[in-house]
Amino acid sequence: MQLPRYIAHRGLSKHAPENTLAAIQAAADAGCEWVELDVQCLGDGTAVIWHDESVDRCSDGQGTLIDMTRDQIRHLDVGSWFSPDFRGERMALLDEALSLISALELGVNLELKINPGHDPVELANTAVHRARQVLPLDRLLVSSFDMNALESARAQDEKLALGLLYEAIPRRWASDAQRLRPVSVHADWTQLDQERLIEIQSAELALLCYTVNDPERFASWWDHGVSGVITDDPALFDSRYQRRTR
Ligand code: G3P
Ligand code: MG
Asked: Which ligand is nearest the CA of 189, by number?
């Protein structure tokens, strides 16, 4: 699998409300080839694209996802907090996001987001199953901080591309890799460790860093073998990714 150099974090979240269909569309409009999206399940099992445990920060409502149903989240406005231009934006169902990604011929790094109280196996089974039905395997990269979620994803398909997601890369990364057979390791760039980086390179795995919005400070890491960045705005790195706003 050819992993991208730039992945738009939560869609083009610099210019549109994160993890929405608008942010996916904005990424495509800007010329991005890949987006990263967080997926989790509501209390009724519906898979939605959302980062936080609750809807408080990024909507006009309140409450935790685990206590909500599909009918309840559909009433939320998830765009106005970002800008009045996005008023009326609805929380994206996973199925809607996958359809749009497919139509736009994007790749997606689907992050299985396990917030407190959520079941990693349920999420992996639901989300990976749907993603594999809609997208070709070369445009799907599944990552998670939760190794149990990745194990369930791996059990579904030996060919599925997996990314081990960490903050600081722990010593145990190699045993996780042996168990899960990933194509990549994803790490918080502010906590990179040169020793781990060399180990990952030696294992011939890609290293993707998040969330990189400071190209100057990041620059030297490219020379150390980082293969890609997850960024709120790929235009910070390459002017080909034209910024467009509504
Ligand atoms: O997948 C990389 C990055 O998205 C992980 O952190 O909190 O932005 O989901 P977060
Ligand atoms: Mg994420």
From this structure: 1
Residue 51 lies in a domain: yes
Q: What domain range is 41 assigned to? A: 6-236
pTM over 0.80: yes
Q: What is the pLDDT of residues 72-120, one digit of tens each?
A: 999 999 999 999 999 999 999 999 999 999 999 999 999 999 999 999 9
Q: Which atom of ligand 1 is nearest to the CA of 230?
A: 2
> The CATH number of the domain where 63 resides is what?
3.20.20.190
Count: domains in the chain? 1
Which ligand 1 atom minimizes the distance to the CA of 109? 1
* Residue 243 placed within a domain: no
3-state DSSP helix/strand/coil % of the chain, to nearest 5: 35, 20, 45
Tokens of 236: 């910070």
The amino acid sitting at 148 is N
pLDDT digits 0-9 by tens, 179-221:
999 999 999 999 999 999 999 999 999 999 999 999 999 999 9
- Evaluate whether residue 242 is within a structural domain: no
Q: Ligand 2 centre from 231 Cα, in Å? A: 11
The ipTM of this complex is: 0.99
Asked, for residue 54, whether it belongs to a domain, the answer is yes
Which residues face 37 on adjacent strands?
110
